[in-house]
């Protein structure tokens, strides 16, 4: 009985080692794939800059105002870290309401 248990323990340890090797291989492959995706994004961005320069030679794409940490939201250039798109949209709506209210007050005062 003890021999059978020891044999089974040995088999399980071998299975564990096999699974561990497969896991380590999968993790390495995943890291390689992540790096490939990142590199493809970088290459695509650079291609876009090259095309922008080709079609609009008067635009200097090395200008410091080009900032990959900014995005266009409602026609305005905003930093990504100002919040996600929903937060930025809510902020823009609130600002628009304030402007509308101020315009109404100004209109009422003018009358």
Helix content: over 70%
Strand content: 5-15%
- Whole-number total of structural domains: 2
Alpha carbon gyration radius: 29 Å
pLDDT < 50 runs, ≥5 residues: none
- Name the assembly state: single chain
Distance between the termini: 101 Å
Treating each run of at least 4 consecutive H or I residues as one helix, how many helices?
A: 2
Q: How many beta-strand segments?
A: 2
Question: What series of H and E elements makes up the topology?
Answer: HEEH
Structural class call reads mainly alpha
How would you write the strand order of the largest sheet?
A: 1-2
Taking the sheet with the most strands, its summary is: 2 strands, antiparallel
Categorize the overall geometry: elongated
Q: Calculate the mean pLDDT score and round it.
A: 83
Coiled coil: 2-36
Region (Disordered): 81-111
Biased composition (Basic and acidic residues): 90-111
Keywords: Coiled coil
Structural commentary:
Keywords: Coiled coil. Residues 90-111 have a biased composition (Basic and acidic residues). Residues 2-36 form a coiled coil. Residues 81-111 are annotated as: Disordered. The structure is a single chain. With 111 residues, the protein is mainly alpha-helical. The protein has 2 domains: 1-66; 67-111, no CATH class. It has helices spanning 2-55, 85-110; strands at 70-73, 76-79. Strands 1-2 form a two-stranded antiparallel ribbon. It is elongated. The mean pLDDT is 83.
Fill in the keyword field for this structure.
single chain; 111 residues; mainly alpha; two-stranded antiparallel sheet; elongated; coiled coil
């Amino acid at each position: 009985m003890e021999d059978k248990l020891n044999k089974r323990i040995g088999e399980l340890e071998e299975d564990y080692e096999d699974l561990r090797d497969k896991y380590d291989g999968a993790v390495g492959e995943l890291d390689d794939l992540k790096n490939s995706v990142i590199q493809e994004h970088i290459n695509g961005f650079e291609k876009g800059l090259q095309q922008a320069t080709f079609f609009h030679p008067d635009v200097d794409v090395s200008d410091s105002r080009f900032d990959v940490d900014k995005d266009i939201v409602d026609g305005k250039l905003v930093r990504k870290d100002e919040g996600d798109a929903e937060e930025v949209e809510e902020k823009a709506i609130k600002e628009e309401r304030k402007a509308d209210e101020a315009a109404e007050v100004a209109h009422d005062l003018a009358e």
